[in-house]
Amino acid sequence: MNIPEENFARSPEPTLGVEWEVALVDPATWDLVPRGAELIDRVHAAHPDIHLEKEFLQNTVELVTGVYRTVPEAMGDLRASLSAVREAADSLGVRLWASGGHPFTDFRQNPVSNKESYSEIINRTQYWGQQMLLWGTHVHVGISHEERVWPIINALMTKYPHLLAISACSPGWEGLDTGYASNRTMLYQQLPTAGMPYQFENWEQWKSYMRDQAISGVINHTGSMHFDVRPASKWGTVEVRISDAASNLRELSAIVALTHCLVVHYDRMIDAGETLPTLQPWHVAENKWRGARYGMDALVITSRETDERWIKDELADLLVELAPLSEELGCARELQLVQEIIDGGAGYERQRRLYQETGSWQKVVEATADEMERLE
User: Fold this and answer.
1) Element (H or E) spanning 42, and its range?
2) Tens digit of pLDDT for each residue in 239-266?
3) Cβ-contact 75, 36 below 8 angstroms
4) CA 235, CA 17: separation in Å to the nearest integer?
5) Which of 33, 260, 276, 357 is most buried, most CB within 10 Å of its CB?
6) Nearest CA to 313 among 290, 335, 339?
7) Which CATH architecture has domain 16-374?
8) At 136, is the secondary structure helix, strand, or coil?
9) What is the pLDDT of residues 182-202, one digit of tens each?
10) Is the pLDDT of residue 317 over 90?
């Protein structure tokens, strides 16, 4: 059996790329509309240089940046793509909307895109695969050598609830308030290759694992491992997939900036010969759950000795610690927008508050769609 080697491309610099999943909704019913492929064709006809991808669901368009050195450059790319996508959406009579999960749609009315790997996922996972009406933010950061990848990923997992809390925006599901800040997080981990990565110690262990997955047929069934944070060997990056899909560019830029700074911070710690932080797998799992459940009100575990702190205090300290690095990386303004989320609330809080005031998830989707145009 010919098993391809897992070779990491290596990135000389900590370059940045972002993937943002955006859905299409009907401006009368505020339900999802399966016209993503048609919209992509219209954008490409008018703007062939803009990078859009079809996604798992026909109601979704993924905006993909090029490779950049700074957050402002990547956000400028997304802003241009969003403008073109909005122009095409207007011509189709649909609205753009982004969030971690749609609060009332019926999964049976949302067809999967015509792609063999997607059909195989549904065939393999059945009910849970059909439930994946979920949207995320994926941030790629370049890593210079494969032996740095897993120490950095394991360190990033200590900040899982931090990246989740500021982005969480999926409290509603099937017409109910789930009580969670990010119901997406809980649903997505039901896929057999999704969820927290194993705490591999080095690249050789990862290669051995991927070889096992290839021999057992797992990769053939699913196309890849869908971990919350994973190596993207083809691009020479670590891909951070923790965050819900932000509803607007302003908060998206804060999420991307914090992610970029954290990865580079841990990379610099390796340069300095410092030991990167880790938590026991059971603490990482507990923090993931607390972040999904409580969002900005989570009390999180911060050390191997099981010390705990409020997530807002943790985030405030992170902003101070990472401020000099953010200046160097050119994303100081974007990183400080995290403070705006701390002070004003995350997306799930706005959605839940409006639902409690109106009793209408339709109004919540409408208001969230408005955010994409208002908060740039």
Assistant:
1) helix 36-46
2) 999 999 999 999 999 999 999 999 999 9
3) no
4) 10
5) 260
6) 339
7) 2-Layer Sandwich (3.30)
8) strand
9) 999 999 998 888 899 999 999
10) yes
